[in-house]
Amino acid sequence: MSLLEETNAAGGTPVATPAPGPATPDVIRSAKPLSRGRLIWRRLTQTSRFWAGAIAIAVILLWAILGPLLYPYDATGRDPLNMGLGPTQLHWFGTNNIGQDLYAQTLVGLQKSIVIGLIAGPLGTLIAAVVGSVAGYLGGVVDRVLVWCINLLLVLPSFILLVILSPLFKGLSWVFLTIFIAGFSWMIMAQVVRSQTRSLRDRDFVKAARYMGVPMPTILGRHIIPNIASLLIIDATLGVVASILAETGLSYFGFGIRAPDVSLGTLLAEGTSAAVTRPWLFVFPAGVLILTLFAVSLIGDALRDAVDPTSGVNRD
Amino acid sequence: MTDLVSIQGASTPARAGAPLLEVTDLSVTFPQRGGPDVNAVRGISYQVHKGEFLGIVGESGSGKSVSSLALMGLLPSSARVTGSIRFGGRSLLDLNDRQLSGIRGREISMIFQDPLSALTPVYTVGDQIAEALLLHDSALGKRAAQARAVELLKVVGIPAPERRAKAFPHEFSGGMRQRAMIAMAIANDPQLIIADEPTTALDVTIQAQILEVLEKAKELTGAAVVLITHDLGVVAGHADRIAVMYAGKLVENGTTTEVFAAPHMPYTIGLLRSVPNMQTAGTERLVPLEGRPPSLTALPRGCPFAARCPIAIDVCRETEPGLLVHGLTLSDELAAELAAEHVAACHRSDEIASGLLTRADVFPRPAPLAVQHSEARADAEPVLRVTGLVRHFPLTKGGVFSRQIGTVRAVDGVSFSIQAGQTLGLVGESGCGKSTTILEVLEMTRPQAGRILIDGKDVAGLGRAELLRLRRDVQIVFQDPMAALDPRLPIGDIIGEPLTVHGVKPDARQGRVAELLDLVGLDPQMADRYPHEFSGGQRQRIGIARALATNPRLVVLDEPVSALDVSIQAGVINLLEDLKEKLNLSYLFVAHDLAIVRQIADTVAVMYLGRIVEYGPVAEVFARPRHPYTQALISAAPIPDPVIERSRKRVLLEGDLPSPTEQIDGCNFRSRCPLYSLLADTDKALCETVDPVLRAHGQVETACHHVERNDLAISASLAGREDELAP
Amino acid sequence: MAFYIFRRFVNYFILSAIATCLAYVVASLALDPASKYYGRNPQPSQQTITNILNGLGVNPDVPVLERLWNWIVNLVVHGSLGNTVGGTSVVDQIVSRSGVSLRLLLIGSVIGAIVGVTLGVWGAVRQYKFSDQVVTYGSYLVFATPTFVIGVLLMIGATALNGAAGMQLINFTGEYSAGLSGSWWDLTADRAVHLLLPTVALVLIGAAGYSRYQRSVMLDVLSADYIRTARAKGRSRNAALVRHGVRVALIPMSTFFAYSFGTLVSGSIMLEIVFSFHGMGEFTLNAITQSDINAVAGSTLFLAVLVLFSSTLSEVLYAALDPRVRN
């Protein structure tokens, strides 16, 4: 890409404009250019996708928190007069065959799914960052062992592993489920972090720090992690999506959240049997779930675009 | 000084008839998402005649590559191109992609900079050359195309072309890939060959070979050549005409002789004066060309060079000068005819051309340093002494069950020493082991063999605390100033980082950082800014400031200016020289640019395949190189002076650097040695069996058995050239 | 090159073997096969339960490593994976069920890959144009939808379609219509119709992933210097992209194939259950619910072998596509 580099070298935003008048040798005389963080933020806020996703998520979060307070029915109570009803003014999403209000249930399920996603996604990223950067930076035996473990965990699909492990957290609270989900969702990202770290390790500024005698943990914290931070933020965002998907999948097939807890997965499981005859029982929770995940994916994608310096340019 | 006769005499091929290529008022603009447009090329006009060799010179961002991609119609679809390009009677900008495809590769062909990425990795070289043939000759059979491809590979000097045609690009060396690119370019006997920095990624000895092949290709096809480069030395020896570009504009255009002898534009003058010349380097200071090109998104009013121009006057900041003939008062008709000869875009070119403003007035040479080089005291303990250093890498294959399939002898018994206040220049082609050598010094671990002594202390026997103390005395400046600075830290933190290791308090650190910024010529107020806010030259100054933070005794400079634009290099070299005198530093200066080594070094060590083959005082080695490799290296390095360049004796090396895994008996330079092939069999036997060691020849140590016969190669190469020239 | 692939195969083989053993151990520790007998009424005697457990080789009183060793010996010597709690042979179950699963997985992943790669190339070439945006948002929508939801939504859609058509256009419950008799052709057509919806769902998942990845690889390739070289030789833009671009952009896809395989396997397991196929997915999930250690071990072995073959295949593809790794 010599062409773009060439034009960017003189034309990119960061380069300051020399002021008219006699030039003081080699001194920038301009307003302070944008820092990288501000630049990313600006690019982010210029994309419509980001705003669509962010507003949708904000609305969904507010709805999940405030919705139940502003609604007369709760998730467990039964309305014996209205059983198996379609959406009405009284029961917005309808009721199931024992008269429980689906709107109230959906909001409770949404809360649970979001909380699990928000914990498990970033937790998985954290594990990936630690394992990946240590393996990549240290290299040698440590690297080989860690990579081998990652490959071993990748042999079986993590959904199957979670299903096999599900008896272990059967009687335990959903917190353990969350931890298990995070524990099986970091491997691919760890490989990415590792390869990034390996290339950073050979970059001159890391070498410079090493030759100065800067200790390893300081190098990781000061030079390596900040330089892959954008990658980690994106992964954490998309990790939220992956974790919610894992949770709903497990719960749907009866290996995740169990009664009396409610999540979107359990609701969907209940709704499936009647999906053809009483589609609202399935469609409403499914719609809410898809909308939530779609909004988060949009933010993740917009973040990725904002971080990538070549995005937005036609590269042909 | 420019009289009519000499101009006409200088125009090498007769520029009669209609030009082959006529570019008129060409502009290229790249729209940017959410930002101002980038005006990469702004209204340039030039002509290329049949068989002419035009050199387009400019720094990065000058628009030289963009303008030639516009000729080929290869710009991204987002680019806006205006003006006119006429080639052989057709207007290229009016043609669509299909029509242009018929011209590309048949009438105009192009050679790109990086030959590795320019060849498709999954097809064989032969197939890719045959493709060029088949695309434009549907009657040609596959077999015939393959046969012709082999023939072409032979023409460009690739040994065993039948076998090589079946090889993939990754199996070729850089020089061979570029030869293959040239073969592809000449496949259909084009009328115009555009070469975009064809030798920038290559070593000097390979560069010399490639330029020869390009000349040969030009002779064979009779094509005109447009050579785009940043290196004045490369065009000096080959181009008939030179066009200089700056900030998207053509600022000077004339015959090579004219432009080098009597440039009319201050930028050209500055460029010519700032480039170190191997013939004169080391005797005087370089002329710095300060500042940097303006941003192409927000060009100032007036002349784009005004901000850097020492002779800018008010009008320069108001109106942009046009490209005009200067120094002559002639009738319009004659002036128009001459416009093709030597034009420059400067309001004061008349004064320059008439001699009122001399080049020394425009860019005066800085005063020599007050302190003269202190003579090294031979008895003192050297700052760095390396003896018999060895670094071999096992070459393994496979992952889990890896096995060793060879040894890379990266460094194979290297010895040198550096006295306080002295500079050692370490030169050699890529892969010769110079980088490994300095990394071994900086790692400060026990070497595989040999000893590294810093200030007389052997690094092998030191504890952690002592090593940390020693690290204070040795610092490094890297080649790429962008990669060497952490983009996430403000430069104050970057410069202060070495101090954190030694427990310096934050307050003291801040003070020291301000001091250092001042020392390297940057504003101390800028400590809280981030690296991306600085230009390449400024970033390298930041890297130098960081290296100086701990008051080191020795600074290792790993190609410190090779990533910088030519006009910036002189300023950084001058700064390094100043600092050395001021702070009594020692430098270990690694470079492939011989002119710069000659400029800054006191002693030079020439490396080849992990060994030092020649070692001695810089002036002596450059004036009388004793080792055939040093001779070849020096003669391959281009000199930015067409007169010298055209009359030089050259020793061209054959082939590429052998693989460092090869176990070679006797002298490891034998396979490429120009002298070896001329020796009698009995003398050859010595080279084949005995590994030469460094022996003193006068002030210089040389590792060659036949030093006394080294003029043989030079006279032989001269004879060879004359043979070639004779019909 | 053969040696290279053989070495990779051995590497994957070891990984798969260890993963299967670990899965056996984990399943043995996590599952309690005795519990279902305690819940029975009348409760069988302790002796009976122990006999049953010993017969299956899953008695928790025997150290787990010893059970693992017996399981391995049994597998290597007799080619047996023990019995299910229902008393049938695990190997027989796998043999009879795997065909259903493999058919869905194979057809779905091949079509998904072809569609995804095509869409990815198309999207990259037409970057930021309308069609690219449609593909992009479409794939994000698929990513945001759990596999089983895609399945159920397709079922709802098919029901509506059948209702509108007034006849059973699309059958989607089970692998074939029970009790249908007719020519070989009729039976095959019936199976194909039943396979339609789950295949569509699997293709959607596969294509979404492949298209995103192929698009980003292709975008990198678009700006590659060798595309410019090919055009400088006289190839038109589109011809250069196809002849030189797509060919190179396929190389990293072979690695992505191995990565995405896990997702597809989980996806097809979910779809089998949603569409009531009696395949390996149902077998695996039932095994967990019934605390059937042998069945769980058998199905993990089956999955590990699948992964082993897909990984090796991806290495073969990689070596075939990229001359740089061949030597």
From TrEMBL, chain A:
Residue ranges constituting the ABC transmembrane type-1 domain according to the UniProt record: 110-300
- Gene Ontology process terms (BP): peptide transport; protein transport; transmembrane transport
Cellular component terms per the entry's GO annotation? plasma membrane
Matching InterPro entries: BP-dependent_transpt_permease, MetI-like, MetI-like_sf, OppC_N
Q: Where is this region: Disordered?
A: 6-27
Database matches in CDD domains? TM_PBP2 (cd06261)
Recorded topology in the membrane? Multi-pass membrane protein
Name the family the entry cites: Belongs to the binding-protein-dependent transport system permease family. OppBC subfamily.
What's the name of the protein?
Oligopeptide transport system permease protein OppC
UniProtKB/TrEMBL annotation, chain C:
Membrane-spanning residues:
12-31, 104-125, 137-161, 192-210, 256-277, 297-321
Q: What is the protein's membrane topology class?
A: Multi-pass membrane protein
Localization of this protein: Cell membrane
Q: Which CDD domains match?
A: TM_PBP2
- The coiled-coil regions, if any, are none
Instruction: Keywords in alphabetical order, please.
Output: Cell membrane, Membrane, Transmembrane, Transmembrane helix, Transport
Major site of localization recorded for this protein: membrane
InterPro entries named in the record: MetI-like, MetI-like_sf
The biological process GO terms on file are: transmembrane transport
Q: Which residues form the ABC transmembrane type-1 domain?
A: 98-314
> What family does the entry list?
Belongs to the binding-protein-dependent transport system permease family.
Protein name as annotated: ABC transporter permease
Q: Which organism is it from?
A: Cryobacterium mannosilyticum
